[in-house]
Amino acid sequence: MRTAVVTGGIGGLGTAICKALAAQGMQVIAADLAARAERVEQFKAEVAEFAGKIVFEAINVADFDACAEFAARVHANYGAVDIVVNAAGITKDMTFRKMPAQAWMDVLKVNLDGAFNVTRQFIDGMCDRGFGRIVNISSVNGSTGQFGQTNYSASKAGIHGFTMALAKEVARKGVTVNSVSPGYCRTAMVMSIPEAVREQIIATIPVGRIGEPSEIARTVEFLVAEEAGFITGANIPVNGGMFISF
Length: 246
Fold this sequence. Notes:
Layout: E1 3-7, H1 12-23, E2 27-32, H2 37-46, E3 54-58, H3 64-78, E4 83-86, H4 101-129, E5 132-137, H5 141-144, H6 150-170, E6 175-182, H7 188-191, H8 195-203, H9 213-223, E7 235-238
Parallel strand pairs: 1-2, 1-4, 2-3, 4-5, 5-6, 6-7
Helix pairs in contact: 1-9, 3-4, 4-6
């Protein structure tokens, strides 16, 4: 049985990813901040049907030492980790000319540093065992940019570079590293956008709708499969045709 860690595991995309992996028989650790106690309890109720195949563990991905402590707990309680999905992410949107340094640093610390802080804890074990799957959740805006999101877009573009470089380093060790770039999906973050603005966004999406978290989860499920060992260093856009590149 494979063991997977999903950061941002109690968020909209994270929850869908946890469920998809657990449905494939994996032991899944949903790693997220414990501060939102109400959401944690709601999440536990949502995944109760998986009978312990999905468990919650607290983590602050922006803190390297906290990630090391998290990894030690996971190893002690669940054994070796085969799969890491870096899905934790935040936004602090505003135009660059109004952006304080803290808003820039906060987003980069979670979205980009977090991928390093977590992956660094598990990569050696994957290489030693000759198997590993790392999937990093980027964004369409990491490829296109977005007004008011220089921090977020930079962090998600950085995920692409991180993915491609690490993929080359560990390819011969049986470890794959890929990224998934969702477009606008039905998450709390997207649904908090004013409806009029959201409708304008939907008008730019060729398929004519926003995505479902399950559609992102299906892509992650595909990339972490045993049979996906020849796919590495890739970025898979899942955005309804909003951005198409060769």
